[in-house]
Amino acid sequence: MVAAAFCHDIDHRGTNNLYQTNLVICYWFGMCRLGSGSPLAKLHGSSIMERHHLEYSKTLMAEESLNIFVNLQKRQFETVQHLFDVCIIATDLALYFKKRTMFQNIVNATEPMETEKDKIDHISNNPIRKEIIMAMMMTGCDLSAITKPWDVQSKVALMVAAEFWEQGDLERTVLDQQPIPMMDRNCAAELPKMQCGFIQFVCAFVYKEFSRFHVEITPMFDGLNINLKNWKELADIHAAKMAAIEEEKKKLEAPPEFSGQTFITELFYENRNTAKYLIYTSQDFFLRTNMSTNDNTNSVERERQTLLL
User: Fold this and answer.
1) Is 184 known to sit in a ligand binding site?
2) Containing domain of residue 302, as a range?
3) Which of 81, 174, 197, 290 yields a CA-CA distance of 20 to 30 A from 244?
């Protein structure tokens, strides 16, 4: 598992599986075909980047000088390769969501057990259970920055966001698509809010269930909740600022209130010979005056119409 963790993102391209699927790759006489997929997408039908990391790792292990498992027997090495498959492919979050219920069922079954040996036997005697636990451990490691002290977590979040924004730029320029907010650098101010959603709907489950499964994981779950609190405070500050701006905007756009006096607001349009005036009064109606001017004769024609609200 440690070796798989080292290799799980090897030769990463800085883009996700969806981008690889939608990438423009074919050019014929200056023409391109959209949505045809990258070479990696054509090679791997699902979990595109994860399968690339896996195959790249196997290529490295084919070199005797790089193969740390070179002294294993053939059967043992085949087991290692299978576990590499399980662990690296498990870092595809799409698969994580599919396995969450199975993991929770395992935790529910082992939580009442009195001894650690009973829990270990329950898992070890069933290869499927063991692989689900390993897969969830890989996800827990992959997302672990979310549990780190705030100074580490905030920096990592900005680094990841910067990578997402680069992909968003590519989606605009290469795919001619509008990126989702998470990938859109124009939505950078929404990062705290998006981090809260990421923690609550993606990360929290795995650390909450692992803290039930193994008490030593509890500090990671505690760290996650501290970071969630910090991100929520930042999100609330941003939301308050935006609400204040919106309120001020409404005040500026709203018609002024007066007591029995007529107030005139002049609105200019592109045609400099035409101006419109709004005349507000304290009654339940307003007067709309259209004024047309003729620069040559200095004559003014006015048409006034009373409109009931």
Assistant:
1) no
2) 263-308
3) 197
